[in-house]
Amino acid sequence: VMSVPSLPYFPMLQIEMAAQWDDAQDTPEVMMEFMTKRMGLPAENRDLVVTEWENIVAASRPLPDLKGRECVFGIDYASTTDFVSAGLLFKNEGEYFWIKKTWVCKNSKDIPRIKAPLSAWNEQGFIEIVDAVEIHPTLVTDWLFRMSKDYKIIHGAMDGFRFTLLAKYLSEIGFEPGRDGNLKLTRGNDIIKAQPVISSVFTNHNLAFGDDPEMRWAINNAKKISYGRDKDIGNFTYGKQEPKSRKTDSFQAMVHAFTIEDLLDDNSFSGVSAPIITW
């Protein structure tokens, strides 16, 4: 009654809230929604966070020299007028290493909502603020091409629903989907399969991405989303803790890369020479 003063005077509302409460007992995300909207108690459900904060901090350790090493890339290109991220994922003897680039559209309508120090991160090189109406695809593909001069990029992955925005430009640098292609267009099931690997990598401190506050912020902004209400219990994909002010693009790019981590040789750091650019 403290959060919903009119509750005693509306029997149908009581019935509706009782039904919502019953549903919330079996589904963590429904419970979060109920507590936020009905009880006025917004809270982060610890069962739904990507990983514990101490695991994120542990992943902030320095990266080894990765020059000439084999890797795959992941891209999150959800909105050209908001945040866009791409990164390279490396693997060696059960450990993973992540290098990323994140662009922020200066004209994004969500920027006033964001409490993170974007200007400082831009100056420090953790993000690149783009002073344009949108983040053009060539910013992403030019970065990948530059990275290919130092690292051996063997494959890539991105959301299939956003592929048309980048198709022409990715093709120009040698990445195309298809049976014999070197670009995976990910779907929900791909991320569901990658989620246990990502969880294990964080838990066992087998991931490093350097001292990058924007990456830590993006991971902490994400949450696990249960796949199915009454079936497939234990299967998860990823979403945002809050849709406007808590961006997850840097993390989602890494998630896409993890959908193809099995293509990487687990001993890829041994006997590797500098990459040969073929496009």
Overall description:
The protein has about 280 residues and is α/β, with parallel strands linked by helices. It is built from nine helices and nine strands. It has helices at about 10-25, 30-35, 55-60, 120-125, 135-145, 165-170, 190-205, 215-220, 250-260, and strands at about 70-75, 85-90, 95-105, 130, 150-160, 185, 205-210, 220-225, 235-240. The strands form two sheets. Strands 1, 2, 3, 4, 5, 6 and 7 form a seven-stranded mixed β-sheet that branches. Strands 8-9 form a two-stranded antiparallel sheet. About 35% of the residues are buried. Mean pLDDT is about 90; it is low at about 270-279.
Helix/strand-derived category reads: alpha/beta
Kindly state the percentage of residues in helix: 25-40%
Average pLDDT works out at: 88
General form: globular
Low-confidence stretches: 272-279
Following the backbone from N to C, one meets helices and strands in this order, namely HHHEEEHEHEHEHEHEEH
- Assess the beta-strand content as a share of residues: 15-25%
Task: For the record, give the distance between the C-alpha atoms at the N and C termini, rounded to a whole number.
Answer: 66 Å
| DSSP E strands, number | 9
Q: Largest sheet, described in full? A: 7 strands, mixed
Radius of gyration equals: 21 Å
State the helix count: 9
